[in-house]
User: Fold WD40 repeat-like protein from Rhizopogon vinicolor AM-OR11-026.
Amino acid sequence: GHTNYVKSVCWNRDGGRVLSGSEDGTARVWDDTTTWQQINVLAEHTDSVYVIAISPNGRILASASWDKTARLWNLENGQPVASPLQHAHFGNCVSFSIDGMLLRIMTYSEDGSLRIWNLNSGEQIGSEWRDGERGVNAIALSPDGKQVVSGNDDGEVKLWDIDTGKIITKWTGHTHHVKSVCWNRDGGRVLSGSNDGTVRLWDVERGETILINVLTGHTDSVYDIAISPNGRILASASFDNTAQLWNLEDGHPI
Assistant:
């Protein structure tokens, strides 16, 4: 189906559909029941689709592209929702949050800007967040929806207050770009993967810049990380052509 590299994939809520975003400028919906049949092609972007994400209610797909826009799609009919969300530079990542009755989407760009949008109106909420000009590569919302962590080209992991747009703290230690970030289940820990080949575990609960552990073993960049549903195991994927499982209690490979 895709005619170029696939950059991002995700599941819908019930696991019956897989969605993919590609450098061919499209996002595609696939049947994951038995046939892997292509159900829909979402084609409005004019450049590579870098990342995709599904809203918490499972009805809307967000796609961020190198055409400097993020687009919202109705997954029932494959049609665009609202106007494109504009960035001055290409969007690296998107993430959804729910705040009462307001559904918001967050977009982050390689120019270092972070923006929040009202999903119902497509309008930007407040001014953009920014801390320097270095690019943002990854974001993750805390389980309670009150904070967001970002991984950045300057090697820092930054914790933001979602209501004020202010930085709460910065974690330093990585020696190269931070490519992926995630939270543990209770929101007390943040994990980050970097081009320096390490995964680092940080303490959030104490509100200080405390490094808990460094997971070493990869010989090239760590570009994606994910925590198991039970919160005990971390998976890391690397450009060294391996994926590694880690015990988060002691930091040892499994």
Summary: The domain at 142-254 is CATH 2.130.10.10 (Methylamine Dehydrogenase; Chain H). The chain has a mean pLDDT of 83.
